[in-house]
Amino acid sequence: MIEILISLFVLSGSLLSLVGSLGIMRLPDVYARMHAATKSATLGVVLLILGTFTYFLSEGVFSLQLLITIVFVFLTAPVAAMIISRSAHRHGVKLWSRTKHDELMESYPEHLKPERHDES
Predict the structure, then answer these.
(1) Residue 58's pLDDT band (boundaries 50, 70, 90)?
(2) Residue 60 φ then ψ, to 5°
(3) Helix extents (H) in the chain
(4) Which single residue of 40, 93, 95, 109 has CA 20 to 30 Å from 33?
(5) Would you say residue 40 has pLDDT above 70?
(6) Looking at the 3D structure of the chain, how many domains does it have?
(7) What is the mean pLDDT of the segment spanning 91-120?
(8) Which residues, in sequence order, are CB contacts of 21 under 8 Å at separation 6+?
(9) Looking at the domain assignment, is residue 99 inside a domain?
(10) Alpha-carbon distance 100 to 85, whole Å?
(11) Residue 119 lies in a domain
């Protein structure tokens, strides 16, 4: 029974990591790619680590490092993606041509707005 649970964790983690990788390659701009990297790849990595943790637990080894790694990935991956996206936005990386609304532009104070030359 425990082997089935470990297999589910590893297979679903691998599938989510694959979906995240495809999203990084196929989505149109850096902001959408950050979304794919953050959501599915993070959950995929966490499920893989959870499968590893469950395997070692079934062998009688409690690994606190794996649990700390899960917490670390959950805390740092979304923050890193947000910082990368904001940095790209501040440096003028263009949005996808079909983007209808730039919510991040509204969040800047007037004196810190990034320069956009081709906006209508």
Answers:
(1) very high
(2) 95, 15
(3) 2-26, 30-36, 42-58, 64-90, 103-106
(4) 109
(5) yes
(6) 1
(7) 74
(8) 41
(9) yes
(10) 17
(11) no
